[in-house]
């Protein structure tokens, strides 16, 4: 142990920061924050959890600030005479929100994130062939054919769009699955697929009415994916998971490949659409502020409710540092155990020893 040292106190600031920014697992950053008071202070001061979240999802760069839901703000609960500075309180709040967010990103639970349809760029026979039919899997529902059909076109390059509202304004999207429609009732059973597809995600413009047409701001556009002329659920995985802020997804169907024998026009028909990912609501919310896409990230702290908040120190004596750490230790004990449980695939008992961290000299040392 005599040959070991705390590298944060021995190396220069830039080198230490570069080392800790190499951590890409939220669980590792939680462990770093639990090493000692000085290490936790270092993580909070440099916003390492926010930087980690930004590396995972660049869409978070539009977050202008963070806020915590339910109850009084920490500034009000601290009271008069507290040693907490306004700046430090803001940093701690940001640290908590982004640490909870990083933990939420680790979830592997996936679901269909479509809440409802908004509209299609065209429809051949409404309402029989409306976009609403794409929400039900299968091309024959209740004894009738179920699909959306575009209007017919002579030009094969005329695109079509299908627009959906997601289950919350803050979702992580990984895959979009689409099944082209096979017309059993037409000669030759043609399949009305598109040549390729592309996906956009974003939010409505002010006044943020998702039912209005042509009023969306797209903050993400995917690469173009080829679609095959086959009657099956075709899976399109995004290059990286995308954080959709605003809850609007649009499918662009590019290029027409099938003519209808009856009128000689080109159509695109879809029987089913599935958007896979996960909602971060209700623990997190996104309040879009303006058409530029700037938003406020709101979080409900883990294990809290309107009447459930950890104690905040209100005195100025020498025990301020101990009290200051108590809240963080409890929070990180919970997060650390849950993260380890996810990593090991089993339940992890709460083995945090609070008395061990009461020692001013406690420190995990690293050999260089």
Describe the structure using short key phrases:
368 residues, 6-stranded antiparallel beta sheet, 5-stranded antiparallel beta sheet
List strands and helices in order, with pairings.
Elements: H1 7-10, H2 13-20, H3 26-33, H4 37-45, H5 48-56, E1 63-68, H6 74-78, H7 86-105, E2 111-112, E3 114-120, E4 140-141, E5 144-145, E6 148-149, E7 160-166, E8 170-180, E9 194-204, E10 216-221, E11 225-226, E12 234-245, E13 248-256, E14 258-259, E15 266-267, E16 269-279, E17 284-288, E18 295-299, H8 320-344
Parallel strand pairs: 1-18
Antiparallel strand pairs: 2-16, 3-7, 4-5, 6-16, 7-13, 8-12, 8-16, 9-10, 9-11, 9-13, 14-15, 17-18
Helix pairs in contact: 3-8, 5-7
Outline the structure in words.
This protein has helices at 7-10, 13-20, 26-33, 37-45, 48-56, 74-78, 86-105, 320-344; strands spanning 63-68, 111-112, 114-120, 140-141, 144-145, 148-149, 160-166, 170-180, 194-204, 216-221, 225-226, 234-245, 248-256, 258-259, 266-267, 269-279, 284-288, 295-299. It has 368 residues and is an alpha+beta fold. The strands form five sheets. Strands 3, 7, 9, 10, 11 and 13 form a six-stranded antiparallel sheet that branches. Strands 2, 6, 8, 12 and 16 form a five-stranded antiparallel sheet that branches. Helix 3 runs antiparallel to helix 8 (320-344) and helix 5 (48-56) runs parallel beside helix 7 (86-105). The longest helix is centred in the C-terminal third of the chain and has 25 residues, at 320-344. The chain is elongated.
């Amino acid at each position: 142990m005599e040959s070991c040292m705390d590298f944060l106190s021995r190396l220069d600031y830039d080198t230490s920061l570069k080392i800790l920014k190499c951590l890409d697992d939220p669980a590792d950053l939680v462990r770093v924050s639990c090493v000692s008071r000085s290490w936790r202070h270092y993580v909070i001061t440099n916003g390492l959890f926010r930087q980690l979240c930004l590396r995972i999802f660049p869409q978070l760069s539009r977050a202008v600030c963070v806020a915590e839901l339910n109850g009084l703000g920490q500034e009000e609960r601290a009271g008069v005479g507290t040693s907490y500075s306004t700046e430090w309180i803001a940093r701690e709040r940001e640290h908590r929100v982004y640490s909870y967010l990083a933990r939420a990103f680790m979830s592997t639970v996936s679901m269909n994130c479509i809440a409802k349809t908004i509209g299609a760029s065209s429809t051949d026979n409404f309402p029989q062939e409306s976009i609403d039919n794409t929400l039900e899997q299968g091309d024959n529902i209740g004894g009738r054919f179920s699909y959306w059909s575009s209007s017919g076109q002579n030009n094969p390059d005329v695109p079509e769009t299908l627009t959906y509202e997601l289950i919350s304004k803050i979702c992580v999207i990984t895959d979009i699955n689409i099944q082209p429609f096979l017309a059993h009732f037409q000669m030759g059973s043609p399949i009305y697929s598109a040549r390729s597809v592309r996906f956009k995600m974003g939010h409505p413009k002010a006044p943020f009415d998702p039912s209005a047409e042509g009023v969306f701001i797209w903050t993400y556009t995917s690469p173009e994916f080829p679609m095959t002329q086959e009657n099956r659920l075709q899976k399109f995985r995004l290059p990286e998971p995308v954080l959709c802020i605003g809850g609007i997804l649009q499918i662009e169907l590019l290029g027409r490949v099938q003519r209808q024998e009856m009128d000689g026009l080109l159509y695109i028909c879809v029987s089913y659409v599935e958007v896979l990912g996960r909602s971060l609501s209700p623990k997190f919310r996104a309040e879009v502020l303006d058409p530029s896409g700037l938003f406020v990230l709101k979080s409900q702290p883990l294990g809290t409710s309107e009447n459930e908040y950890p104690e905040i120190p209100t005195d100025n004596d020498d025990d301020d540092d101990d009290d200051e750490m108590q809240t963080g230790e409890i929070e990180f004990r919970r997060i650390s155990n849950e993260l380890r449980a996810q990593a090991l695939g089993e339940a992890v008992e709460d083995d945090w020893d609070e008395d061990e961290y009461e020692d001013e000299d406690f420190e995990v040392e690293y050999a260089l």
